[in-house]
Amino acid sequence: MSRNCPGRPVHRGRRKPVDKELSVIGKKAGVTTLTIVKSDGSATQMYRIDVGNDAAAATIRQMVGNTNITVRAIGDALVLDGKVNDEIEAQRAVQIAGAYKAQVVNLLEVSSPAKSKSAAASRK
């Protein structure tokens, strides 16, 4: 097994490792287990590592301008939940989420849904 430590000086094509440093890089959202093993092969510690969607959630909330949006990963989909002000915010959240995952489940509740033209015309 080779070690490659980002952010450290390069030594023979690899970055020079530092004692007691470990980098775990998640490639996609999910859960994995990390086991630390002594040189004699015995396990010393086990860690559960969650790679979440914090970046996606933060970007969606920031770009939509709404902190009431919850983003969860379920399988290969992002699920959007919470309350938005209007259809434009909902559509924008779905479009941004689509940049992170191809499948987006929209469970957003719209506070002020757009009124249809036929409903507006019937009131006149």
Descriptive notes:
The protein is an alpha+beta fold and 124 residues long. The protein folds into two domains: 10-51, no CATH class; 54-110, 2-Layer Sandwich (Histidine-containing Protein, Chain: A), CATH 3.30.1340. Helix content is 23%, strand content 35%. The protein has three helices and seven strands; from the N terminus they run ββββαββαβα. It has helices spanning 54-64, 87-98, 117-122, and strands spanning 10-11, 14-15, 30-37, 43-51, 69-74, 77-84, 103-110. Strands 5-6-7 form a three-stranded mixed β-sheet. A two-stranded antiparallel ribbon has the order 1-2. Strands 3-4 form a two-stranded antiparallel ribbon. Strand 1 and strand 2 form a beta hairpin. Mean pLDDT is 78; it is low at 1-8.
